[in-house]
User: Fold these one by one.
Assistant:
Number 1:
Amino acid sequence: MARPLWSGSLSFGLVNVPVVLYSAVRDRSVRFNQLHEPDGSPIETRRMCAHEQREVPWEEIAKGYELDDGRWVLLSDADLDSAAPRKSHTIDIESFVEEREIDPLYLDRPYLLVAESESAARAYALLGEAMRRSGKVALGRFVLRAKEHLVSIRPRGEMLTLTTMRFHDEVRVSAEIADEIDAAATPTHEQIENAMAIIEELEVQFDPTRYRDEHRAHLERIIKRKQKGQKISVPVADESKPPAPTAPDLMGALEQSLARIRGENASKKKGKKTRTSERDADRSGSGSPRA
Amino acid sequence: MPRSLWNGTIAFGLVRVPVKLHSATESKRIPLRERHATDGAAIEHRRICAKEDREIPYSEIVKGFEVSSGSFVVLSKEEIAAADGSGAHVVEIEHFVNGEQIDPVYYERAYYLSPGKFGDESYRMLHAALKRSGRVGIGRFVFHNKAHLVAVRALEDVIAMHTMRFADEIVPESEFEIVTPQKDPSKLEVDTAQLLVSQLDSSFEPDAYNDTYREAVMQLIERKARGEAIEAPESQQVAPTGDLLSALRASLEQHDGARRPGADGSPDGSHSSGRVVGKRSRTRGGH
C-alpha cells in the first residue's frame, strides 16, 4: 500500500473526521534510471550547497523565495504552516453542490481519503452516506504541499475521493480562443446534422478499460527484445506534413464517413468481417482515408 | 492570444479538422526554490557516479531500465523514440460517449483547441455537433513522446480537450485497508447529516473561491524580509468527534440563519469569529 501524503481532519459542520490522504493515481510510465555510460553504474543525484561545496542532508533544506532585489527569504515548513495553520491540517467542507456543475476544466489531481481510526470510521461512513443520499459532492479547501487547493469530495465505492481543483484564475478564459474563430466560416445545417449522425454511429458506453497505453506496451516490448540481445530497428522519422485540410470538401468527407461507418456497423451486426468498400475510397477526394 | 503548444488534426470518420492546442490552465503557485537552511546558499543537484564517486557530465549519461535488482538494459534515445509511433499529428477519435459516464478521476490536463489553417468551418461544425449531441469524443494522440487518451468536448464557445488517465493508472480500492466502523451510523444520524448537507447546499461558482493562502504566504515573506520573527503555530491535532448526533445538531443550529459559507470561506484559526479583516491576524494564526 502506498504511503500517505497528508494526514489531518476532514471537517463537516462541527464533526471532525481524522483522515489520511493517498494518491488515487499511480504513474505507470516506464521508468528509466540514469547510468554512467562507461561503467554502467547508477547515477545518484546529490543535493550540494553551492557555497560550501558539500552534500546537504534533507533536514537542512529550506524553501527560498527570491525578492525583486535578488535577496532570498528562507521559509521553513513551520513558517509555511503558520501562514494558514487551520488550512494546513483541516479540510473544511464549505458547501455541497451538484456534481455536473463542476466543469472538468477545474479538476486537477484525484486522491483517496481513508478514515484514520475505527472511531473516525463512523463519521466517515456517515458523511459518505449523507452525500450518496443527497446526490451532492462537497466543496472544501485545504493546504497541501505549500499550496492551497479548492477540493471536491465525492463518494466512490466504499471510499471518499478528493479531487484538487484549480482556482478560477488558474483556468484561462476561453474567450481569447473563441475570438480567433472566423465568424464568417459558418457550417451548414446539413453538415452539422451529418456530423451528429457520425457521432451517433460511433457512440459507445464509456469503458476506460477498453483503452490501453500502447506506447507503454511498445516500450516494454522494446526493452524485452533488447534484453534478449535483439537489435531494435529505429524507424526513420516520419516528418510528414499534417494531412491536407478538408475545407474544400467537408460535405463529401462527412457523407463518405457516414456510409462507411454505417456499412461497418451493419456488417458487424451480421457478424461478418469489417471491410471498407472500394467505392468509398474512390470518392474520398481531399479527405485522406487514413482512419 | 496564447501561443499554441501543438498543431495537428482531429480526425473522426474521414473528416479532418485542423486544430491548434493551447493550455487551458496556468499554475499560480508561489515559486519557491530549495536553499540551504544554514547559509541560504543555492542547492545544486549534481549527478554523481555511485561507483567512482565523482560528478558526471551529461554526455556520459545513458538511460537504463532496471530489469532486476541492479541489472539494467540500456536504451538509446533512438530506441526509446521507436515506441513513439508514426509521429503523425493527428488526434484520432475512436468513439463518442456520454460525458456524464466519465468518472472525474480520469481527467488529467485541460487544453483548449482553436481552428488551424482552413479549419474554421469544420471546427465550428464539430463544435456545434458536440454541443448539440452532448457527446464527448474519445481519442488518442502522441504529445511530448507519450501516447495520451483524450476527451474532446464542446464548451459554450470553444472545443476543449483533456488528456485522460488510463484505467490501470487508477489505484483500485482493494489496495486500501478500509477501516469499518463497529456500528453503522443510525438512521437518525444519517437523516441529520443529510439536513446539514441541504443546509450547506449551494451552486458551484468558481469566482467565489480565491487562493487566500497564496496571499498569506506572500505577506509572510514580506514580514520575514523585514526581519520579523514568525511565531510557530499551535498544534492542530483534532480528536474525532465522539457524539456524532449532538455535533450534527449543534452544526445545524450554528449554520441556521448564519451567513452562507463561500466567498472567503471559514477564516483560518477560528470557526466563530466571522471574517478576518486585519492582514496581520491572518499570518499569525494559531489564536
Note: Chain A touches chain B through 198 residues (CB under 8 Å).
Number 2:
Amino acid sequence: MPRVKIDSNKCTGCRSCEAICSLEHFQVVNPLKSRIRIYHEPGQRLYIPIISGPFTGAQCTNKTVKVIGGVEIDGCVLCPVASCPSRHLFVEPGSEIPLKCDMCGEPPDPMCVKSCASGALTLVEVEKYATDFERSY
Amino acid sequence: MNGWMGKIIRINLSEGRHFLESLDPLMARNFIGGRGLASKILFDEIDPAVDPISPENKLIFATGPLTGAGAAASRFMVVTKGYLTGAIACSNSGGNFGPELKFAGYDLIIFEGKAKEPVYLLIEDDHIEIRPASFLWGKVIPETVGLIKQELKESLGKTDWEAREFRVACIGPAGENLSRIAAVVTDDERHAARSGVGAVMGSKNLKAVVVKGSQSINIDKHDQLKNTLFLLWEKLKEAKSTGYNLPTYGTSAGVSFYNECGIMPTHNFKYGVFDHAAKINGEEMKKKIVKGSFGCFSCPIRCGKITEVKEEGKVWKGMGPEYETLALMGASCEVDDLAAIAKANYLCDEFGVDTISAGGTIACAMELSERDYLPEEDIGFKLTFGDGEALVKLVEMICKNEGFGKVLAEGGYRLAEKYGHPEFFMGVKKQEFPGYDPRGVKGMGVAYATSNRGACHLRGLTSLSELVGIPEKVDPLTCEGKALLAINFQNFASVIDSSGMCIFAFRGIWQDGTMEALLNAVTGVGFDSAEMLKAGERIWNLERLFNLKAGLTKKTDTLPKRLLEEPSPRGPAKGHVVELDKMLIEYYELRGWDQDGVPTEEKISELGL
C-alpha cells in the first residue's frame, strides 16, 4: 500500500505541506487545519514532519524520549496517532473534530508530497502498515 | 474578504490601548496590501517631516494578500519613517511571523505613540494584550525569544507545543540603543533590517510582537490557486537559480557570479573584482560551514542556510551569511576569512543589526583610516582593509554600543561626515549600498539613485535582466534603456512587496501572468496586468511624494563621487563610470515627473493619489 515516507534530515521547515493540505481539504490556508505539521526545535534548527493517524481517546502509558540529531524529543510529539488526551494536535479549531491523513489523490498522490521541494516527503509502496519504527528520522 | 483578513489593529502605546479597524476594500485594491497599504496609511497619518524616533512617528507591521496563502509568499513589511535615511522605510522579512499574523486574523498592526516602560505585544486571535517587557530589555534576540516562550508556558499556561507556535518579531540591544542600523528580527530566523526600523521600534519602547492564530486565510478560487502553484513550483524548480543555486548554496551562490561580472564591491567600492572571492563563495561556504537549509513559510526555494563555526571553546551557530553580507563585510572590507565574516554576521543577528549597513560602514571606516583621515586613537587600534579580527571586533562594538562602535552605529554617512570626507561614504540617501557595483551594471546606478528607501537591492534589481537575463538579457555596460528597465523593475517590485511575495520567486512570475493569476485566485478581485502595474506605479509615486514632503530633493537622487567620476580600475567594467545624469533625466521624463523629480499634477491625478 502507498505510504508517505518521512526523512526529517531533509526537511527545511518551509511548511508548504501544511499550507497545501489545508488548501486541499478545507479550501483555505490554515496550518491548524492541516493533517501534517512540522515540529521545530527553535535553537536547534531541527524540523520534523508529523502526519496525523487515527484518533485515539485514551492516553498510552509507555512514554518515551527519542534522541534525534543530538536533541531529546518527547516521544509523544512524534507519535503517529492524530490527537489524544496528552496531545492537542490535529484537531480542527472551532469544531474540535479530529483530523486524519486520508492519503489524498486518486490513486493516492498526496498533496504534501507534491509540495515538498526538499524531498523530505516521498511516496513509497510498503507491504504492511508503516509503523513508528519504519520511519526514518 | 478573501486573501486579506480585513482587520487592522491600531495600538496606542502611550495610552496602552488598542483599537480594531476594518480594511477598506477599495484601498486594498488600489494599494494591494503590505508595503503599498502601509505606505498609504503612513502618508495619510503622519507629517513626513516628523522626527523618526519621536512618538509622532508611526510603525506599521504589514502583510499582503498573498502572505501565508501558500505561494512562496511569507513576507511582512515594517513600514515607518526610517531613522537611518529620514525617508520612508519599508523593510521586508520572510520567516513565519507574517503568515502567523494573518492566521491571527489581521493584515496590519499600526503602532502609535511611545510606551512609558518597555512592553511587548501579545496577540492570540482576539486576545490582544500589551505586557511589560522590562525583563526582556537588554537581552539578545535568542534569549528574548527564549524568555518569551518561557513566560508563555509558565505565566500563561501554554503547553510546550503551543508556546512553540507563537512567533516573535523583536529588536535586540541595538534597537534599544537607537542604533541607526538596527533591525527587527523574526524568531532568530529572518530580519527586516534596513533603514533603521529597529531603532524606531526601540524608540517606542516596544521590545517584541508575539503572535499566534487559528484563523484561516480564505481563498477565492482554490482550484485555480492549486494549479497556479503547481506551475510555479515547476518553473522555480526548472530555473537554475531557484532550482539549484539558491537551494544548494543560498544567496552566497552570487559571490562567484557577481565577481566574474566585475560588480563585486571591493575595497569600499574602489574595485569591482575581489581577488579572494574563491575563499568566501558558495562552494567554500557549503564545504566549510553549512549544516542545513531553512525555508520560509510555504517557499520551495529554501535559500536560508543554517551554518556553524567552531572555534576553541565555542561553537557559533546561526543563519547565513547571505550574499550581501559576504559582499559588504567580505569583499568591501577585503576580508577573505569566512569564519570571521560568519562570526560578525552571527553577532549582528544576535544583537539585531543590519549586516549590509554594518559592513558598508566598517569598509568606510577602513578607507578613512588608511587615508589617515580617521585617527587611530579614536578607534583604539590600527584599522586596515583585510583585517578579519578587526571586523569582528568592530561589529561587536557596534552591537554592544561601546567605544568607537557608538560612532559606527550611526551608519557610514554620519561617520564620513564627522571626519570631513563624505565622499567615502558609499550609499544613497544616507543608506549603505548592497553588494552590486553599479559601474558594471548601469541600470543599478539609476535604480539606486532613485530608490525611495535609499540604496537598495530589492527596489529595482535590474541586474537580474542585465546579468542573469530575466526576463531578457541586455548589455550591462550601456545606459540605453536602463531608465525604463529600472522603472519596470521598481513598479513590479512594489507589487511583489505589497502582495507579500518573495522577490526570489521573481524568476517564476515575471511578466508571464503568474503574479496576476495568484492574486486573482487568492483575492478574487480580478486584477489585470495593467491594473497591477498601475498599482505598483501608484505605490512608487506615493513613496516619492512622502520623501519630497520629508525634505528630500533631487539632490539626494545621486551616487557617491567615486562611482560617477572614478573609472572602475579593472575587471569587465574597466574604464566605466555611471553616467547618471543622462539616465536620470530620462527616468524623470518616463516617470512623468518634472525636471526636479516632482510628480506632476497630471501624474498624481492619473494615479488617483
Note: Chain B touches chain A through 44 residues (CB under 8 Å).
